[in-house]
Amino acid sequence: MTDPITTFFDDLAERGHEPLLEKAVGSIRFDVVNGKQVERWFVTVDHGDVTVSRRNIGGSCTIRVDRPLLEEIVTGRKNAMAAVLRGAFSFDGDIELLMMFQRVFPGPPRPRARRRAAAPARSRR
Predict the structure, then answer these.
(1) Global pTM?
(2) Tell me: the pLDDT tens digits for 20-62?
């Protein structure tokens, strides 16, 4: 099974340039908490040019988030800004950078189209 957080950051790094972040400059460190373990992702943005690493250095913004919540954010099941407003994760630093970065998180999954049950054929009498 693939890890949605790793997939998200790998995909972001692979793009290299993200047009949605062309007005953003700075870095975000994600401290992803899983019990007693902390996994770190470090994202640098320079006018849309994005690099991702696992460095443990400070950034313009630091986000501390529980793994299950970040999994829901990177899969589009939860909204990052709504989580901030609820106090579901903590951040320190440049809120404007965080607000710009949330644009790259996926939106909610689209509901599957319901299949209509085939209407029974009517017999003509």
Answers:
(1) 0.81
(2) 999 999 999 999 999 999 999 999 999 999 999 999 888 899 9
Coil/strand/helix, residue 76: coil
> Which domains, and CATH codes, for the chain?
4-104 (3.30.1050.10)
For residue 91, what are its two tokens?
């951040």
Q: How many of the other CB atoms lie within 10 Å of CB of 42?
A: 19
Rounded CA-CA distance 96/111 in Å is 31
Q: Which residue type is seen at 102?
A: Q
pLDDT digits (tens, 9 = 90+) for 51-76: 999 998 888 999 999 999 999 999 99
Neighbours of 45 (CB within 10 A): 23
Q: Report the alpha-carbon distance of residue 22 to residue 100 in Å, rounded.
A: 10
List, in sequence order, every beta strand (DSSP E) within the chain. 25-34, 37-46, 49-53, 61-66, 90-93
Q: Which two tokens stand for residue 33?
A: 């908490």
